[in-house]
Model the fold of this input.
Amino acid sequence: MANFNEEEIEENAGNDDLYEHYRFKADKGQNPLRVDKYLMNLIEKATRNKIQKAATSGNIYVNDVPVKSNYKVKGGDIVTVLFEHPPYEFLLVPEDIPIDIVYEDDAVLVVNKEAGMVVHPGHGNYSGTLINALTYHFENLPNNSSNRPGLVHRIDKDTSGLLVVAKTEEAMTHLAKQFFDKTTEREYVALVWGNVEEDEGTIEGNIGRHPKNRLQNTVYENDDEEKGKPAVTHYKVLERLGYVTLVSCRLETGRTHQIRVHMKYIGHTLFNDERYGGEKILKGTTFSKYKQFVDNCFKILPRQALHARTLGFVHPVTEEFMRFETPIPEDMDLCLEKWRSYSKNVIE
Done:
């Protein structure tokens, strides 16, 4: 299988936090020792290169503070190592969880993921994920470069919509190359705060992990561009609803949280996107009735208003271009109906 970088081919998503793999407490009598050597003595099959890479990325912590590889561990220190993938011992637990299958043949599977389902196991989500369900319903799914069975791309836990899953090694390689080459079609619908003035546009801005909040990504500009990776999102206004706007977003690249980060970057945070501040009232009046209305909308749609509606790719066997579309789910649709009614009766 071609070893494509998973970060290059996977959509946003959502679940690209750091995961604790190891935690050690140094003995009281520990003589000062470089943290990379200390960890090599304790982690089975660890290479110095891997450990130093983790340190360079800021993923080795001593007493909850990131350290460099030359830090000297002393008695009582608590050393933690984090990586961007979950510990693999938690990955492959098959669970009988229903899957909404949109299309299936011998090579591929297209799934409509419901909001709230994590795509792959990670810290705090070791069960109930799409991977747990896939390994129960399908045997011998091929692993991707991060040992995740069948997974070609991903979407966030609280984003609903379409995913393609590879059922064979050949399909995995073929589909991974399409995502890497940016030839797939991916369209999302999002409800965002504010009136998006331009009918359509393109957002370009390198995306990387936020320097102060490791759970967020951000856009890096000018001299800091090299800290992020190139990302391009094309958007089009579908419906203006006063203090919010329904937009279509087409991805040219697939960075973690790309739509959520890019829309916030241009001043239009996704509605009820708690991680990026969209759970607050960002536009509108100060009337208490309006606050109550928005709170009711949050209750109806208790997640970011983002749905992966359209997915297109070339079939790895037939070479036919296939396009799938799934309707906006009920929670998002009900929220939209409330905004339509409000904008018609109050704003107009």
About this structure: Residues 1-16 have pLDDT under 50 and may be disordered.
